């Protein structure tokens, strides 16, 4: 038993040692989040093991298939931070990092349906590359319109939680579900309808890059939505 166990351990140890001329990949990348921020698709990523400045030229490649339009961009990096965001400005067709334009692609029109599309990020440094992929879902924005005397109550947290479980976001820069609050006790029906129209045009659409929205209304809110 002793004579067979020792060679097995040696074999395992030998297999764990990389072959000569085949260095281990020194870094990797993770896609932390993807969401619409106004007219830009923001991709937030995290890198590790990428501090070796002598390893060679660095670049990040991004590809996505958004609403039937392929987006591909490669951005050279002087420094590869541990965490950073890259914005794809869909209206301008520009790639931006920290507000600085670093690349371009064909512009994409505002979308009018729920989107599900793949995103791929590849980091390159010298001979090494690290790739991360993610399937992204961006729903059409939804506006919830509550009923009479809604200003006396807080937004329905159970309803918002149900939206979050389905991939919606009710806070933050990539918000996709909006709670429309209006002073129903002090407004006529026509005034409330105009207030809703202004809210959609001035708040919801500019924040989401969508041409259409979904509306969930109940009680007086259901009448306003018509």
Can you characterise this structure?
The structure is a single chain. The chain is an alpha+beta fold and 226 residues long. The protein is 22% helix and 38% strand. The chain has 4 helices and 12 strands. The protein has helices at residues 2-16, 157-165, 189-208, 220-224; strands at residues 28-37, 40-48, 58-66, 69-77, 83-89, 94-97, 100-104, 115-125, 128-138, 142-145, 177-180, 214-217. β6 and β7 form a beta hairpin. It is elongated and about 65 Å long. The protein starts with a helix and ends with a helix. Residues 1-22 have low confidence and may be disordered.
What would you report as the Rg, rounded to the nearest angstrom? 25 Å
Determine the number of helices (DSSP H or I, runs of at least 4 residues). Answer: 4
Mean pLDDT: 80
What's the end-to-end separation, in Å? 82 Å
- How does the overall form come out from the CA principal axes? elongated
Tell me the series of helices and strands, N- to C-terminal. HEEEEEEEEEEHEHEH
Which topology of the largest domain does CATH recognise?
Immunoglobulin-like
Q: What topology, given as strand order, has the largest sheet?
A: 1-2-5-6-7
Largest sheet: 5 strands, antiparallel
């Amino acid at each position: 038993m002793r004579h067979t166990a020792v060679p097995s351990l040696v074999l395992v140890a030998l297999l764990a040692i990389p072959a000569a001329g085949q260095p281990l990949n020194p870094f990797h990348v993770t896609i932390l989040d993807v969401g619409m921020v106004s007219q830009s698709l923001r991709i937030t990523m995290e890198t590790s093991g990428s501090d070796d400045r002598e390893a060679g030229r660095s670049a990040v490649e991004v590809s996505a298939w958004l609403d039937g339009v392929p987006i591909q961009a490669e951005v050279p990096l002087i420094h590869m931070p541990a965490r950073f965001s890259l914005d794809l400005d869909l209206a301008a067709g520009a790639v931006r990092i920290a507000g600085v334009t670093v690349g371009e692609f064909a512009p994409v029109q505002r979308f009018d349906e729920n989107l599900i599309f793949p995103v791929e990020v590849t980091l390159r440094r010298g001979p090494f590359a690290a790739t991360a992929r993610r399937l992204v879902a961006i729903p059409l924005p939804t506006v919830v319109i509550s009923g009479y005397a809604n200003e006396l109550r807080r937004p329905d947290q159970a309803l918002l939680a149900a939206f979050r479980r389905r991939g919606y976001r009710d806070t933050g820069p990539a918000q996709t579900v909006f709670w429309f609050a209006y002073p129903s006790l002090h407004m006529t029906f026509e005034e409330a309808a105009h207030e809703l129209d202004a809210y959609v045009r001035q708040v919801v659409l500019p924040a989401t890059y969508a041409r259409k929205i979904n509306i969930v209304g109940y009680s007086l809110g259901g009448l306003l939505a018509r």
